[in-house]
Design a protein that fits this description.
By secondary structure, the chain is an alpha+beta fold. It is built from three helices and five strands, in the order αββββαβα. It is extended and about 70 Å long.
Length: about 150
């Protein structure tokens, strides 16, 4: 009943920056090194492919600063630091050998979804009442690891 006798109120574990995001940074750094090297051959050889475009700009006329004008589904080739992926696999794991070597011998297709808001469309087309583009928001993946959450 005496608060001064309390020895420990909270006890919880924390992680270091390197244990939490160290591997992610290694993959990022290795990817940038590899795609910027002469051996990669430039982006023209590892191009971005548009898979599908969902055009929704008709809704923008009513609200130029509101809805999504266009959604682009695509993929691009990237160094692949995963193993245990593909048909028959429910998930993939980091290839720790490739990460420690700092280079991947496998090239994989990274899929993406790009949402273009009506405000960006209006600004790009110079429509009256359009707001000036202030920022671009990049979102890696959803909380539950699915592109539909983007």
């Amino acid at each position: 009943s005496d608060p001064r006798s309390l020895q420990l109120l909270f006890d919880f574990h924390t992680v270091s920056e390197s244990s939490q995001i160290g591997t992610t940074r290694l993959v990022r750094d290795a990817t940038l090194r590899q795609v910027n090297s002469d051996a990669w051959g430039g982006w023209s050889e590892h191009n971005v492919r548009v898979i599908k475009i969902d055009e929704k700009s008709e809704g923008c006329d009513a609200s130029p600063n509101g809805l999504i004008a266009r959604t682009i589904h695509g993929e691009l080739n990237v160094p692949w630091f995963l193993e245990g992926y593909g048909p028959g696999h429910r998930g993939a794991f980091l290839d720790l050998d490739a990460i420690s070597e700092g280079e991947s011998e496998i090239v994989g297709a990274a899929k993406f979804v790009l949402h273009i808001p009506c405000s960006v469309r209006a600004s790009a087309l110079g429509l009256s009442g359009a707001k000036e583009l202030a920022a671009v928001v990049e979102f890696g993946h959803g909380l539950f690891y699915h592109r539909k959450e983007a």
